[in-house]
Amino acid sequence: MKKALITGVNGQDGSFLSDFLLEKGYEVHGIIRRSSSFNTGRIEHLYIEELKSSENFYIHYGDMTDTSNIIRLISEIKPDEIYNLAAMSHVKVSFETPEYTADVDGIGTLRILEAVRILGLEKKTRIYQASTSELYGKVQEVPQRETTPFYPRSPYGVAKLYGYWITKNYRESYDMFAVNGILFNHESERRGETFVTRKITMAVARISNGKQDKLLLGNLDARRDWGYAKDYVECMWLILQHDTPEDFVIATGEMHTVREFATLAFKHAGIEIEWQGEGIDEKGFDVNTGEIVVEVNPEYFRLAEVEQLLGDPAKAKKLLGWNPTATSFEELVEIMVTHDCNLVKQEKSAISEY
Ligand code: NDP
Ligand code: GDR
């Protein structure tokens, strides 16, 4: 039985990856942080004793800033595969916590690589690093592929740039199977509520159920290549199964604005939106009631914005046989809105069911 260690196991991707690897027959070990309130909502379903998968699922306390903890866990578990998903993952928040973000997202990656090297596991343990389309930031080429130059636009992007290069450097210096998945935005019903897609779908659910008046958003013109997280975790695994250690762009190859996402999300809940005004004065009106349901609030603007991201998944398609459009943009929006409407009707908190 193969053993996998997942950092960030209770995040969006960590939870889907755990489901996926347990289904594949892996023994899965995950690292979570101590928290004063429950933080295991997304992986709770894996704790249920009657579930066969729970026999092979182990949780350990740890932190990406705690070197001795990381060395101890890797030494005890001796994983065949490490998926380094833990990160301070919010781009806007990284402007307020730049040093911490560098420590967790940048040096944290080094701590994993060094632990594997110090423990002499270079030939046994394959390492996946969660790299990001935020590396491209101010884009130098459209669409972005593995060879496109990087230009990060946030402390998060800069910290992840270190993570990217140190992974590549350890691969080249110590002959380790250490690789980057450069993943473009991927969303789901398990997405954190402060990211724009989930913020929109939760607001749509609450507004259509009379529990919220309007949705406040920042840059409506930002364009992203949005995929479905469940499809993307399969790719993380495929990257580690590949014969040679290589970096891959994972994306759908389709780009939409925040405005388009919001329009479609409201439509799925039966609300037709008409947009009026420009820039910070732009508003979204419900055509049936004439009520304002979306308003722009400059509080949500970024200090340095990434205006557009569009990935080219050709390499992953060709070498990994991955299907980038297994779930379409329309299906993704529908999955999230349907899920959140049910959640709001039942008046549950967003992540308590996982
Ligand atoms: P989430 O924010 O949902 O999850 C992040 C995880 O990291 C959480 O489990 C969090 O734990 C954990 N974490 C944060 N800080 C620490 C720390 N100091 N020590 C240990 N664990 C920590 O992110 P996603 O699941 O969406 O993303 C997974 C990874 O992929 C991240 O590295 C992200 O930067 C990257 N990525 C994500 C993309 C996306 O579109 N989702 C695209 C490209 C890259 P806690 O719950 O305690 O905060
Ligand atoms: P991003 O995701 O920054 O791409 O990082 P996010 O959903 O936060 O923003 C996407 C775009 O939407 C614009 N936007 C808003 N964003 C938020 N959060 N809230 C708003 O109200 C709002 N209004 C408009 C943003 O300005 C931005 O342009 C995500 C994270 O998961 C990273 O960890 C990951 O690396 C990248 O995706 C790829």
From TrEMBL:
InterPro entries: GDP_Man_deHydtase, NAD(P)-bd_dom, NAD(P)-bd_dom_sf
Entry's Gene Ontology BP terms: 'de novo' GDP-L-fucose biosynthetic process
Residue ranges annotated for the NAD(P)-binding domain, each copy included: 5-336
Source organism (scientific name): Planococcus halocryophilus
Protein name: GDP-mannose 4,6-dehydratase
Gene Ontology MF terms in the entry: GDP-mannose 4,6-dehydratase activity; NADP+ binding
UniProt entry keywords in alphabetical sequence: Lyase, NADP
Enzyme Commission code(s) on record: 4.2.1.47
Function: Catalyzes the conversion of GDP-D-mannose to GDP-4-dehydro-6-deoxy-D-mannose.
Required co-factors: NADP(+)
Reactions catalysed according to its record: GDP-alpha-D-mannose = GDP-4-dehydro-alpha-D-rhamnose + H2O
Recorded family membership: Belongs to the NAD(P)-dependent epimerase/dehydratase family. GDP-mannose 4,6-dehydratase subfamily.
PANTHER family: GDP-MANNOSE 4,6 DEHYDRATASE, GDP-MANNOSE 4,6-DEHYDRATASE
